[in-house]
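User: Just a sanity check before I run the rest of the batch. Below are the structure tokens for the first item. I only need the designed sequence back.
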């Protein structure tokens, strides 16, 4: 499965394009695209047939979380895992929005 990373990047790009086509290019669509892409990345192993509980990144995250916190429930661990990806998606969407606005202003100034 050497092509899986390539397909994951194509799927990320496709998801982003669909969101921007439907919602147009706004701050909200940038945030939604960021959340969607980060969430897809988090659950990519499930979509492609591997169980989440055996995903390398999830196992590392789970071990780290159990080391620092007393998270007994798998549901709690999964919610924290998803929440981190949603927050990272919001941040990346806002950065993309503000960076594109800044670049548009720089181009207009020239």
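Assistant: Here's the designed sequence for the first item:
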């Amino acid at each position: 499965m050497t092509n899986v990373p390539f397909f994951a990047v194509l799927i990320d790009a496709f998801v982003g394009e669909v969101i921007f086509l439907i919602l147009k290019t706004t701050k909200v669509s940038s945030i939604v695209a960021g959340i969607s892409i980060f969430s897809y990345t988090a659950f990519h192993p499930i979509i492609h047939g591997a169980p989440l509980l055996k995903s390398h990144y999830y196992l590392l995250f789970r071990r780290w979380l159990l080391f620092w916190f007393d998270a007994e429930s798998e549901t709690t661990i999964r919610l924290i895992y998803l929440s981190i990806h949603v927050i990272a998606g919001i941040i990346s969407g806002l950065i993309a929005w503000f960076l594109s606005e800044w670049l548009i202003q720089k181009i207009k100034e020239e």
